Amino acid sequence: MKILKFGGTSVGSAARMKAVAALIQGDEPKIVVLSAMSGTTNALVQISELLYQHKNEEAKAQIDALHHTYKQVATDFYTSAEKQQQANELLNQHFDYLRAFTQDSFTTHEERAVLAQGELLSTALFQFFLEEQGINSVLLPALNFMKIDENEEPDTAYIAANLKAELAKYPETKLFITQGYICRNAFGEVDNLKRGGSDYSASLIGAAADADEIQIWTDIDGMHNNDPRIVKNTYPIAVLSFDEAAELAYFGAKILHPSSVQPAKQKNIPVRLLNTMQPEAKGTIITAESEGGKIKAVAAKDGITAIKIKSGRMLLAYGFLRSVFEVFERYKTPIDMITTSEVAVSLTIDNARFLNEIVHELEAFGQVEADQEQTIVCVVGDFMEERSGAALKVFEALKDIPLRMISYGGSKNNISVLINTPHKVDALQKLNEGIFEHNATNA
Ligand code: ASP
Ligand code: MG
């Protein structure tokens, strides 16, 4: 069994979806996981915001506009009048459902139901197309097996048991279509795996079905060694380890949702990143093994806040860091980087929602400074094998950039530095010249 996940741009129009249908030909058993058509989830988020603000007329206008877009998709997608009608009936149901929310006040529970419409639509429209083509496939409702628990973590035992039960209903079927992103929560309500979560769905499904391979299809030819929007001459990385991929995904490589590596790693299922626009390109394969001793890639994550706590009480004391960490724990705010000296500790967070509360509580321990508009630049590779000199290459390249924090040795896969965001472009370009162009001439 293979899992193939197609992102929003890969299903962004009737033509793109037809290309996906061509890519999933063949007798090998497959579960195809689809995102919403590109732009749809953003539109649903906007509609929800309007509904929260009681701007119901504006919300209705946006729902009508989205409905109009989808009617065009239905026109382009099917050749038979019968399928067009079937698709339009489906669209009417979904959009009337959305319009019903413009009648009264709006709740978070209803918002999640609104956000689920994108994936429900893309998969249903796609299934109609396969039917019209005479391709034998079954549309599996993700809401029947995908579930998160009370901590919003996937309930993997439930997912495995229920996915297997769904699959067992169709012993003759080789091709299954299902929704990414959407799930039920601990109360049985419709919920989701957070923005970009379709990759995570694919990986959870792969782990639950003991798949041979998980393929993530996007519109770029794999994970690149640096940010292609900022640096010229980037290239796809052929092989990454699970840990390297997780670091890159977390620290800014937009191509893969960071949580999606874990379920695949646990079951040791290779993840392949492939390009629908260039299906023959090799892309990136993420596996347990990787080439040792190499710097693989650079990624950057913006929107970071650095917090420094200076305290005489830290000197020779134990339990100090625990008290500091507990403050973050109370506000459910993860810490990314941390550096300490004998009298101060600096750390970073990317969710500044409770910054004021956190700073206020930390002031009980000493002097607190918070700096926003910071960027983590993360260099990923296999540094243990490199033995010596890897860090030197990184810092030589960054010699003209002011560094606010440095983190090395936390894992063998990562050297991270924290810089002011305005220095990011320069830092990524300098690292490219210092590491990869150097690699290229040595190759
Ligand atoms: N449609 C959802 C989003 O736009 C999930 C996904 O595409 O992965 O965030
Ligand atoms: Mg995505």
Structure characterization notes:
The chain is of the alpha/beta class. It folds into 2 domains: 2-219, Carbamate kinase (3-Layer(aba) Sandwich); 296-442, VC0802-like (2-Layer Sandwich). The protein has helices at 14-23, 40-52, 56-77, 81-100, 108-115, 117-132, 156-168, 198-208, 242-250, 261-266, 320-330, 355-362, 383-386, 390-397, 424-442, and strands spanning 2-6, 30-34, 138-140, 175-179, 182-184, 190-192, 213-218, 239-241, 271-275, 284-287, 295-310, 335-340, 344-349, 367-381, 405-408, 414-420. The protein has an 8-stranded mixed sheet with strand order 3-4-2-1-7-9-10-8, sandwiched between helices. It has a 6-stranded antiparallel sheet with strand order 12-13-11-14-16-15, with helices on both faces. A two-stranded antiparallel ribbon has the order 5-6. β9 and β10 form a beta hairpin. α4 runs antiparallel to α6 (117-132) and α14 (390-397) packs across α15 (424-442). The protein is globular, with a radius of gyration of 24 Å. Magnesium ion is lined by residues 7, 196, 199.
Strand content is 15-25%
For the record, give the distance between the C-alpha atoms at the N and C termini, rounded to a whole number.
37 Å
Largest sheet: 8 strands, mixed
Order of adjacent strands in the largest pleated sheet: 3-4-2-1-7-9-10-8
Percent helix: 40-55%
Q: Examine the coordinates and then state which fold CATH places here, giving the name of the CATH topology of the largest domain.
A: Carbamate kinase
